Known about the structure:
Number of strands: 5
Shape: globular
Helix content: 40-55%
Radius of gyration: 18 Å
Order of helices and strands: EHEHHEHHEHHHEH
Strand order of the largest sheet: 2-3-1-4-5
Strand content: 5-15%
Amino acid sequence: MTSTHPTDHPAHPPARPLHLIAVAGNSPGVGKSTLCRSLADWVRSTGATVDHFEEADILTRPAFRPVAEEFADGSHSVRPETLVAATHTYVTESRAAGTDVLVTDALLPFIPSLVAWGHDEPTIARFLGELATAVEPAQVTVVYVQDDPATALQRAVDREGPDWENWYVTKLAASPGTRSVHDLPSAAAHLRHETALTHRLLAATPWKVLPVDVAGLAPHQTAQHVRHHLRAALTNATP
């Protein structure tokens, strides 16, 4: 939801290098996509040029065509180097097009996918180092939306229905790194482990990380909280 309060707006449109706001969530049902849409609308209202990269766009954006093709080749996984190269292409092309801000939904940092595909923590840490280099000189802020996974998963089931629950559990159970999942409680246990892993890995990157605990917050309150913390970064971005 776009705020009408003038104090919510950066004093000036963001300066280059472009700012990449990567919205990620620790579980389905935390409101990640709702927040991402709200942030894209808010930044756009400042006069900045914004690219809102929706979660499904990874299958259709030209820069990520190698990712989509590799995932569809039967292995249902993507090599880390393919993700790095595609992200570099996306950021480079966005800068060339004069885009000020990228707001991405479940793009960076790719940790849930890499975990599901069976990569261990040292491998993912090396990947994040390469990814950080690949997106330079973009300024990156990871907005990490989190809630207790059991609560968030139940919220997702209530929203999507029992068929979604079956699909989600089956998807995790079929992947090498998440084969321990066989029901919602085991999915929640896996997501708690993944949340702790994500915090450790992101702490070692050069990126600004904004953890957002959404327990007890309505979507508009979450958006207001994030806007408050992003305002200075957008205003003070420097070439």
